[in-house]
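Q: Focus on the chain.
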Amino acid sequence: MRKPLVSVAIITYNQVEFIAEAVRSAAEQDYDPLEVVVADDGSTDGTADVVLQLAEQYPKRVIPLVGGPNLGITGNSNRALAACRGKYVAFQGGDDVLLPRKISAQVEWLERDERRVLCGHDVEVFDSATGERLFLWSERFGLRRGKGAAPLVRRGVPFCATAVMVRGSAIPASGFDERLAVVSDWKLWIDCLASGGQFGYVDGVYARYRRHEGNITNAYHEVRQDDQFVTLALVESRYPHLVSSCRRGRAELLRSAGTSAFRRGEIEFARAYFLHALRQARRPFVRPLGGILLTLLPGRLAAGLVERFRPNTGTRALPRQ
């Protein structure tokens, strides 16, 4: 029986140091049929040239999308997605590395049940300069299984973005929502699961997430935060059955924003965020209540408690360039 076509969508921008390793890690997967769509967002450092060279080395696998205008993260993600023809689509950052058997393992999981829509796995986060492991994704954020979009709305994405494979038929025709500048993957996963499909993961570490100074997660703090709140507003207006989950999700975002403000020393902002988190939750909400209490403690004591009891769940992972 012929296996289904899988597409790997890679977005890249000025990643000449990393793009070759990233593309090779996808193109050399032990799975067939496979296509690796590499969308360059108008790089100026030679990344596009490397992509073209890789397309020559892997003529039946690597599909280069170069020479187009700079569209930004979400626009470039849609440029890649539009060229994907696979029954399943995997997503990869242009500086991340896929490990052997990733594609095979995820396809096997998805093929077992048509109700399965989104599959993830564990990821090793590593320091680019030294190659050393910093932590496993599951150690910081956990991996989750569930049904429908409500768990994602309430708690954020369940997997690192470069760990995700999605059933192509569940992806909306509009793709990534271009009203979101940076955090567009969270909204896409919600859209894919809004009709009630299942999400889960395969055991094992099947990718490496590179940490370096150029990570998107190191920049655009305010844009990321804005995108997160806008995402909930868009979901709330589009999916009536997710309104209550959006309220819970907004409470968690406000609590997270309060924690960030507290760490920056913006005590009044932090207190306001925590108060609004309590109002959104509609019922006693231990974490924002604890945040309010922190803002009333002496600085050193409060800072020490924040580090000691740093939350270990929930994150909004980004599609990165």
Summary: Residues 311-321 have pLDDT under 50 and may be disordered. The longest strand covers residues 198-211. Residues 243-263 form the longest helix (21 residues).
